Task: inverse folding
């Protein structure tokens, strides 16, 4: 297994077979990267190459393609109207999710006005830039994935979480139409990209459906409103020989049986603070799902480095049993984690993640 490429390593893990070592990927916050550059990460270093991340992600513009504008800007934040027509506030120097101030679609009538903007068109991909980048990553052996935000997660960005959750109860037919339209666009875009030279190694769909204590809606709501769209997308990728990873933050334990029925091959990121325990999930569903993540980011910055070593050692011992595990934190790497500590963590991942 000497000289195994990232593509080979990840594909073996997703197929429940043992590679030479656990594949590695991670997603530090921008403020974390800023800290690391102050603490020793070379200014010109490519983060993914420096730490040996295995994935390279490629997508298309899935927005409503509305004109964007900056509405207000200070030293601390920027307020913009984005390409969906939503108004959001982004903090410049702190790790946080953006605050949405206004949503463009709050009822069925507004949806009808704009739904045609969620159809595929050729301008959604910068072909001259993205395709050469893809081919270079492919030649270098990286695991090149198609990525897209779908379902509830994508819809909340233009409907708003509160409005969307209420509509799932009061007007489920409309909400299902939104999810189906998003799936249609995802499939159309992926199909066109593959037809024009993007020979993807897998797909990674993003759909946050949980919060700290439970899923945002019931398994029944998932089955009736989201499952049909998920199954169509997964079937599309499976028909082309591609494994499908689902990213879903928060506690989604109650949804896992239906996610398996939908055909997902791997679940990520397994938030520890939301009760998504990697060891428990591996024992319950490890014969049906590969797992990616589950390493508690809060323990990364603990004053005693033995804490994160124990976290990695004990969870790897169970997660690696059949090879179906990919390293990732249980969310993103926060800016409480220093550069030298993260380098130490990467050393631990490689030490405990070897199969020989």
Result:
């Amino acid at each position: 297994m000497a000289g195994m490429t990232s593509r080979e390593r990840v594909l073996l893990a997703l197929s429940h077979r043992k590679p030479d070592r656990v594949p590695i990927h991670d997603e530090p916050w921008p403020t974390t990267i800023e800290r690391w550059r102050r603490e020793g990460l070379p200014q010109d270093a490519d983060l993914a190459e420096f730490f040996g991340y295995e994935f390279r992600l490629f997508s298309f513009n899935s927005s409503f393609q509305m004109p964007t504008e900056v509405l207000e800007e200070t030293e601390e934040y920027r307020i913009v109207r984005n390409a969906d027509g939503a108004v959001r506030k982004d903090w410049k120097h702190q790790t946080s999710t953006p605050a949405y101030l206004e949503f463009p679609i709050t009822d069925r009538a507004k949806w009808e006005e704009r739904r045609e903007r969620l159809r595929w068109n050729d301008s959604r991909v910068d072909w001259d830039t993205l395709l050469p980048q893809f081919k270079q990553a492919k030649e270098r052996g990286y695991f090149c994935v198609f990525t897209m935000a779908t379902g509830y997660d994508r819809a909340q960005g233009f409907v708003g979480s509160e409005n969307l959750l209420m509509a799932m109860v009061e007007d489920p037919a409309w909400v299902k139409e939104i999810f189906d339209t998003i799936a249609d666009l995802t499939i159309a875009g992926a199909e066109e990209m593959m037809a024009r030279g993007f020979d993807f190694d897998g797909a990674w769909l993003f759909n946050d459906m949980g919060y700290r204590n439970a899923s945002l809606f019931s398994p029944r709501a998932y089955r009736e409103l989201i499952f049909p769209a998920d199954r169509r997308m997964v079937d599309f990728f499976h028909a082309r020989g591609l494994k499908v990873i689902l990213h879903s933050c928060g506690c989604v334990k109650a949804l896992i049986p239906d996610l398996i029925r939908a055909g997902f091959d791997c679940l990520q990121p397994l938030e520890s603070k939301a009760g998504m325990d990697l060891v428990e999930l591996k024992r319950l569903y490890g014969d049906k799902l590969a797992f990616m993540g589950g390493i508690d980011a809060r323990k990364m910055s603990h004053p005693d480095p033995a804490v994160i070593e124990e976290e990695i050692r004990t969870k790897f011992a169970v997660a690696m049993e059949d090879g179906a595990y990919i390293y990732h934190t249980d969310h993103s790497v926060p800016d409480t984690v220093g550069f030298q500590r993260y380098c130490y963590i990467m050393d631990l991942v490689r030490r405990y993640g070897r199969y020989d």
